[in-house]
Request: fold
Amino acid sequence: MINTLLLLLVYQLVGELIARSLGLPVPGPVLGMALLFLTLLVRGRVSDEIRTSAGHLLQHLSLLFVPAGAGVMLHLQRVGDEWLPITVALVISTFAGMAVTALVLKTLTRKESAEGAES
Reply:
């Protein structure tokens, strides 16, 4: 598990270095995860160690929401003052996420059906 955490931190560091050196408006950890994803795509598989460690991290994912919840409580007055744009952003992003998920599912289902028909 330590090796996997080290790997995640290295990718995060590389992403942060790229974002800061190129002045990109994307967070370094997002770039790091994209690089990790590309690495796993090129390798064509996920090692058992990474799979196990990721499973352990996902089991405790709810702990990562504690800082966000504390931040909301800290800035509750601002949230109250700006409730309309926050609500609009939440509703639009929720529907956009559902639409993209539906389109991806539809595309993958259609592709899987076509591959099944060929066999």
About this structure: The mean pLDDT is 90. Residues 1-59 form one domain. The chain has two domains: 1-59, 66-119. Helices lie at 2-22, 28-43, 48-59, 65-74, 76-81, 83-118.
